[in-house]
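Friendly challenge for the regulars: who can give me the structure tokens for this chain first? No prize, just bragging rights.
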Amino acid sequence: MERICSEDTVAQAFIAAGAVRVSFDPMFTWSSGRKAPLYVDGRLIYAYPEVRSAVIDAVVRALQEQFPEATAIAGVATGGIPLGAVSADRLKLPFVYVRPQPKAHGRGRQVEGELPPGSRAVVLEDILSTGRSAVQAALALKREGVDVLGVLALYSHRLPEADAALRAVKLRAVALTDFERLAAALKACGRYDDAALKNLTEWHRALVSESPAGR
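First reply, four minutes later:
Bragging rights claimed.
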């Protein structure tokens, strides 16, 4: 890992892995279809052993502190799969992963794997934006009789629509870092000039205010 320039372990890890990209022209397209100048690619952290280890350490601590009653881990496909599998291995807990929709062949499963009856699971996401994928995963688990304790994400854009979606299904969400902390880390680490970071912050402020649940 490169020099430590931020006290935020997860934000530092994203930066060290080159997982934070800023571009206003052209913009990125998120999985929701929204155009944005910011793209946080959680999958890149798995390529670097030291970065990956630091992130998994943070996830395991958060699971133990925030969800001590958990008896299982569920990863959201695809970014939450390696994150959940390694964390579950560290904690010696069962692991499953959840597809966006049931598979069109074979057993037609949406939840891949099996959990003991009465399992209490935490849903693991890499990036939380609209919250839709986390909600879909939680509902799929609940249909199989799993008690879903909440969602743990590496990073959250902190959009009101995500908060509203999670509240609607009574899901507690915990994010290890978020937009404000990531922007502060980018500044501390000397990534992008002040003008770019100012534009990025203004974009995020407008995004939050324009969010359907933010009005």
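The chain is about 40% helix and 20% strand. Helices lie at 9-16, 49-66, 80-91, 132-143, 160-168, 179-188, 194-210. Your move, everyone else.
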